[in-house]
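Input for the complex:
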Amino acid sequence: MRRWNGWGDESVAFALNEDALAFLARRIGAGTPVVDAAFGQACARIGASRLPAHRLIDRGLIDTSPEVRLRNALGQSLPDWLRLRYGVIETAPDGVAYPESAQDVRELFDYARACGASVIAQGGGTSVAGHLTAPHGVQPVLAVNMTRFRQLHFLDTESQLATFGAGVFGPDLEAQLRARGYTLGHFPQSFEYSTLGGWIATRSSGQQSLRYGRIEQLFRGGSVETPAGTLDIPTFPASAAGTDLREMVLGSEGRLGILTEATVRVTPLPQYEAFHAVFFPDWTEAETAVRLVVQAGLSLSMLRLSNALETTTMLALAGHKKMISLLEGYLSLRGCKDGKCMLMVGVSGHKSLARAALREALALTLPHGGVHVGRYMGEKWKQNRFRNVYLRNAAWEHGYAIDTVETAVDWPRVEAMMHAVEAAAVGALALHGERVHTYTHLSHLYAQGASVYTTFVYRLAGDYASDLARWRALKRAASLAIVESGGTISHQHGVGSDHAPYLAAEKGELGISAMRALFAHFDPTQMMNPGKLLP
Amino acid sequence: MRRWNGWGDESVAFALNEDALAFLARRIGAGTPVVDAAFGQACARIGASRLPAHRLIDRGLIDTSPEVRLRNALGQSLPDWLRLRYGVIETAPDGVAYPESAQDVRELFDYARACGASVIAQGGGTSVAGHLTAPHGVQPVLAVNMTRFRQLHFLDTESQLATFGAGVFGPDLEAQLRARGYTLGHFPQSFEYSTLGGWIATRSSGQQSLRYGRIEQLFRGGSVETPAGTLDIPTFPASAAGTDLREMVLGSEGRLGILTEATVRVTPLPQYEAFHAVFFPDWTEAETAVRLVVQAGLSLSMLRLSNALETTTMLALAGHKKMISLLEGYLSLRGCKDGKCMLMVGVSGHKSLARAALREALALTLPHGGVHVGRYMGEKWKQNRFRNVYLRNAAWEHGYAIDTVETAVDWPRVEAMMHAVEAAAVGALALHGERVHTYTHLSHLYAQGASVYTTFVYRLAGDYASDLARWRALKRAASLAIVESGGTISHQHGVGSDHAPYLAAEKGELGISAMRALFAHFDPTQMMNPGKLLP
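Predicted:
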């Protein structure tokens, strides 16, 4: 069964080994485990449902039990975790609907409108930016869980388009396509539990977007139920006919309606796929090399560059002490010592073309001290690509919090951004007398610049208020560093509640008010996910 | 000097040879040349300016002379041509402003607001969809000519971004970049006279978009003056932060404001560029082959597939009778006879990679009867890529009208679309007792489908009313065929006035009203290009 207060399935554990714990203890001190609230305790914090009686409840379309409401109350952000782990459930939806058709969604809108309820659409509840929290207030809140919309309705192999119910989970979507020889190729770290509709509503990006594109490129059309009516978006290979309606839906975060069906671009399963690792002596060489590689426009599927501390951390956490020690010895001989940075290079597709692209990429790294160490580290990374996120559970159990922030900037600002975000976090928790272990990677590379993805590990205080204060201090400092360094407040996680205060820095007041006007057109009474996205 | 009633510079002529004229006479009958109205006659049709006196006029920022108003009154659509050639100037702007700064634009908005004038922004006036026509009515109309915004303000070679004044013409933009070793790579057929701002406002696509991307991909940020204020859009390599403001500007066709500055993605000038021709025995084989080539994701810069009649037409117009005859003999031996279709394949970039991609593409055409005939035809096409549009002048002088329509559809609908559009045009003019010479090419290819670009050649009646009636019948029939066959009303020309009646077929009433609400937010008094884009 899925964990109610952590990541993933209860049966899956990804332990921190002794060396990793010793490493963390050296970096930031030993953690003190916290006793989590029990599920029953947390349920008891949830008040009676304020939803008025209705045939939709009688029909079983809406579940008002505290258990289901709790399981759909929050996402996976750190403050969400704090609420769940400490059992401080301040708000929860008054009911959770499980529609199975667009007609069901329209009836839910009618019901919500009639009883003055807010509507929060959700897929797999993997938001790390507070998209799902029910607002405080006297109005009832209806969560609409879309995960029964999971079928592949149509696969057009000639146009390479697949139409799915928008609530389909990543693995289910890929399984349905794989059986027919196709893939979407969208693999965010949340892949196991996130949904197609969620990816579109939050402008998600997958780990192999270099080959497959971001969800913006994959989303080709669909159907959206909005309070003002149904918005049907046909598929065209391209169009110059005015405003692209897809772009109204992308990143709308449940503010204008609920996507029920989405048509996405798919491709035949790649004949060949491989992930290789390359080490560089330092960040400057590494960043220059990856910029040249991505600007060469080679057919790669992934580039992911870790800074020195992330490289050290990954090697410390890898286990296989002996092998890592041999690797480090070899790298040292080749000039990659303390400040070394690890690059993952992925290729997919036609075998000979993929290999040619890899060869070309490796050749471009050579003048910058790149040391190709083959597939071992890359394949390890691939094996663990969706398991790493379970580390948050393991860290918590040892008294550590793990959080991340991410942004994207043009190349001249990348390195400064990395330093600014890391320093801001360290400075913020220093005021709380705590150290932060921070490390960064460039998760997605573009000719124009890169995403900058920073992880923070720090100790839990052991009580809700203190831990919330620590998180707030760190999040605020890191977010301010992002906007002050000219980055977008999110490259791949979306805005939700946590990033909303920083949105005006990039959109301007006029941009913000235009978004507001656009959403209000589809949702005149503003019942859709109020308070999210727009500050 | 630029022609006031036709395409391009007066000094450039591109004659139709005897064979081409004989070919046309056989297809649709001999044309009867029309006597064009003189510039002075047309000017005399323009009434006195209704703009009230103002210091902006005194300062010379606004020109109210009939000559300048006439030269900025219309675009290059066939009805625009009919008005100019026959001297039937029904409406013209009351003045043409030539701002040089964002401040000038803001002052022009203040002035327009104060005197109740409509504002029509224009770049090079190359619209073929009626974007620029002043509306009938009692309100004065102010044209804002943006071509003094032409400078390269900043080139960031690290991020491969260039910031230009938005009114820069294609050749000027490329010249400024070329001097620094870069290219934008955006080459619509209108390249000589169209502007960066116009490309963005109409979602333009260039001939090598397969390599460089459509303008949507190239446009990375900028500054827009709107009646509600200035919208500044920063550049990010990618963002998940809510609605993408660039998408509000793209395809807005002057309805929300005027782009003053745009930052675009540029790339180093390609080391190598080549265009090759491949012939196929028939359309079915050709279409299948190009679909497989484009879906293979090779690094090509262009794919352009002509149907049989376009292939015949291009060979007839090529001159070099002897050489073409030898070519056709060779092709016939290789199985490409009457129904043969010509494909242009372009490659650009790193020489060895470009050649490898070309080899791979050619290999994919072989099982479909593809006959590679080398670079000659391709290089000829390249030489004439911006000259072909001058053929419209030459045809007119012999009593023929040339018009085009274009759309894009997913692969399963491509062939049916081509036949439907051609048949609709033929049927429409049959009712006028005229034949139409129609031919089609797929101008832009995507994994998902293709643009379908159809040309019509037919005889002029010799008077304005009859020729307008012929055009209306043809345009309406072709446009209805497009929407009834599931295509977008424009892949690359935009909507303007001529396509506006067909827009709701793809956007739906809700989509149309959402666009209206969005534009109204930036332009509350709806003074910006009223009546265009939205029906």
